[in-house]
Amino acid sequence: MNDIAIELKGIDKKFGLVHANKNINLSVRKGTIHGIIGENGAGKSTLMSILYGFYQADTGDIFVDGRKTVIRDPNAAIAAGIGMVHQHFMLVENFTVLENIMLGAEESQILNAGITKARQELKRLEEEYELEVDPDAIIEELPVGLQQRVEILKALYRGAEILILDEPTGVLTPAEADHLFRILEQLKDQGKTILLITHKLREIMAVTDEVSVMRRGEMVATRTTAETSVEELAELMVGRRVLLHVEKGPASPGDVLLSVENLTVRDSRGVDMVRNVSFNVRAGEIVGIAGVAGNGQSELLQAISGIRRAVTGKVLLQGEPIHVTGKADPSDLRHRGLAHVPEDRQHMGLVLKFDESENSILGYHDDPKYLKGMFLDIDAIRNDAADKIEKYDIRPPNPRLKTANFSGGNQQKIVLAREMERDPAVLVIGQPTRGVDVGAIEFIHKRIIEMRDAGKAVLLVSVELDEIRSLADRVLVMFDGRIVGERAPDTSEGELGLLMAGVEDTKEAAQ
Amino acid sequence: MSVPYAKLPAWVDYGLIPLINLAVAFAVAGLVVLAVGESPVRAAGLMIQGAFGYGEGIGFTLYYATNFIFTGLAVAVAFHCGLFNIGGEGQAYVAGLGVALPCLWLDQFAPWYLVFLAAIVGSALAGAAWALIPGWLQAKRGSHVVITTIMFNFIASSLMVYVLVDVLKPAGSMAPQTRAFAESGQLPRLDWMFSWAGVDMGGAPFNLSFLLALVMAGVVWAVIWRTRLGYEIRTMGHSPRAAAYAGIRQSRIIIITMMMSGALAGMMALNPIMGDQHRMQLDFVGGAGFVGIAVALMGRSHPVGIVPAAILFGMLYQGGAEISFEMPQISRDMITIIQGLVILFAGALENMFRPAITAFFATLGGARADKSIAAAE
User: Fold this and answer.
1) A64 and A97 belong to one structural domain
2) Nearest residue of A to residue B1 by CA position?
3) Final residue belonging to a domain, choices A238, A271, A288
4) Number of Cβ atoms within 10 Å of the Cβ of A27
């Protein structure tokens, strides 16, 4: 009985219409490493947030060490011996390691006694778990691997017996990740219980004792790691889904319209998010980029469309170079025939406080047909918007309505109408149907196919694997910033799932 | 839907909420008056009588309002770009040079309208130039305009003391001010407008720059809502990421917006210098730059709201002076407190009552929706 560290019974959580966790049951044995895998949006993070007290479950109970425990906030979780290492570190960047570890556990207004105690305790923890860090180093001067170690020390300092790690290797190099796994083994040997959340199957196989699979808010299976295989887990993770029915003839690819060569893009933290990526998109074909969110797709799209500067690499648009490492200008790219439907339509693709007609010219507002001298030609803009509203069946059909008052699907149609009606040579689309209702999905898919059949080059990025499989003519899989494989769209979900999880030699594994 | 999208009717948003804020401000001001042993009712009567009760009072109210229209528009233009320009005070102060220098150079031989034209251009340029540096620092170096513009207020203040005392003061004069302008350095007063209504404006300095302020209100509306530049400014203000996506050059827009804002604040200097004192004096701005913030907030950054808000603050200035004259218990400092309360409730606490009112209208709307559902069944 007492060898169960955590038990969840019937955890259920809804956010508005989204059912994030459906009747989850889970038990984690003491002194084990328990993996939780699933695609983005499967509900892993929600479940862990409930366990750590960020959210309250609508129904269901949490048992810690066999005792029913109510976790109202992170303090209650810490008191129950649960510690969490977040995907995005919760550290004060300009404090020292010691100061960060003490934060929230200072014990008195005068810090001196606390500092001495913390220093001793830190030394003991470092020796016990081989977690060496200089206590007086400033956080922002440490590499990410060491910052993560500080997060782990922080949890241990607070007496955590159960440690939750949320996508811990996302920011680590492979060597750092291996080191982390050795630390986790060490912690396990000392009797700690570890919950490891990840979408990378390699990690699951490497370190866990047991693994639970989540899919679309449900806990679909729990396996003993030694008795399962990468293939089984990949299939459990993506599931057997019915292909969305999309009427689509064979592609007839023409000239290369978009060519990406050795592109590398770094994010604001200095981590390479896109690593040496090369591919081509031809006229009359849809190239789909599959992958779990956060593997560099967003940065790739932004670099191609001139919003984010690349570190190295070359991009050719209709044979002409785009200055991606310098001053690529989105408005110049539009003139050269590149249309971009951004992933984040609410903050990037639209200004929600504008009325519909104002959004229907965003990015094209320098077009003379919308202008009379330096003034906007309001009549021309509204008539143009009304035409698009009719053609794309945007509801309600009112160009003067504030954009925030349209539904997600209709907002997306506003963006699509704006970008597609310019008759671009290359169309770059991110997450075309995220947060869009079913009726609009079919419409949007049809339009994308029409663009292809009209001889456009379409680059499609989506985290919805079935969307990629039903629309794309070729599928590239992105993992950890690299293109790890190219497959035909009728490749099995299992094989694509393996690639998305970072297992590269699928040809062998699939046999 | 679990959370109904609560949208307030326009008359509530633009009419009722400002009125409630104002009523609360006056109620608290009334308590202050009561505390010093005077009658709030009589004080209110005096204020309205002083501001609107006779020709000269109205003239002064509109004279003050002219200042606040300019500075209110200045703050509003920057708001639309997401910038908080609290340097209107300094921009207007430095722009005094843009008014005074053309007057001093031209008033001997050019007709008044040419001098006026030169002063309009001069004040706008000087105000824009003073706003350009904080704007450039924000755009290129990320130095926050709130910090830099307030620092530039202090710099402007010291600079103008130096200029007035050491450069522009006529030799032998004891007062830190320029010489008086000749007649063509003085703006025509608008007594004829009062004569039409059969009222005598008396000695009030209400002058042509009021009409310029109204014209600028129209210009601001047209630029913000009807030009490509205004479209880019508003896109920046609502969503910098959308602006980046659209290929709008952000630093360029920030600099241009700050210069427009500074130019509007600068034009405020025309009113006291050319319209009233006919010379440039120390501290002629007198806090109008800061009142502009409250005016812009109260007027919801829209010219149609800014003009009445400016007149309201003009009333507080003029009527407040009247109260302190009639009620010896209430000093000028008390009037400043009352003005401060209005700024506090109408400006800084503008959204204090909004959640309650939104909730109230949401229940009203909900009840109506329930009824229509019941009727449909």
Assistant:
1) yes
2) A16
3) A238
4) 16
Which of B13-27, B43-57, B126-140, B331-345 reaches the highest mean pLDDT?
Answer: B126-140
ipTM reported for the complex, 2 dp = 0.81
The residue of chain B with its CA nearest to that of A303 is B245
> Based on the domain organization, do A210 and A274 belong to the same domain?
no
**Dihedral pair phi/psi, residue A274, rounded to 5°:** -120, 125
Tokens of A502: 């970072």
Verify whether the Cβ–Cβ distance A347 to B248 is below 8 Å.
Answer: no
Are A351 and B245 inside 8 Å of each other by CB? no
The Cα-based distances of B46 to A32, B27, B50, B319, B329 in angstroms read 81, 16, 6, 7, 14
Decide if B242 and A376 are in contact by the 8 Å CB cutoff.
Answer: no
pLDDT of B368 > 70? The answer is no
Supply B71's token pair: 């500075």
Chain A: residue whose CA lies nearest to B244: A307
At position B230, the amino acid (one-letter code) is G
Per-residue pLDDT of B297-323, as tens digits, reads 888 899 999 999 999 999 988 988 888
Residue A268 lies in a domain: yes
d(CA A318, CA A315): 10
* CB B265, CB B70: distance < 8 Å: yes
Displacement of CA A288 from its chain's centroid (Å): 17
Q: Which residues contact A98 (CB under 8 A, 6 or more apart)?
A: A115, A118, A119, A122, A135, A136
Given an 8 Å threshold on Cβ–Cβ distance, is B227 in contact with A374?
Answer: yes
For residue B289, the distance in angstroms to the closest alpha carbon of chain A comes to 29
Q: List CB contacts (< 8 A) between B247 and chain A.
A: 306, 329-334, 363
Which of A58, A331, A332, A348 is the best residue to mutate to test the B interface, defined by the most B CB atoms within 10 Å of its own CB?
Answer: A348
Amino acid at A262: N
The token pair that represents A221 in the structure block: 């299976």
Domain ranges, residue A457: 256-509
Total beta-carbon pairs less than 8 A apart between chain A and chain B: 74
Mean pLDDT of chain A: 88
Q: Which two tokens stand for residue B369?
A: 């929706």
Average pLDDT over residues A66-72: 90
User: CB atoms < 10 A from the CB of A216, how many?
Assistant: 15
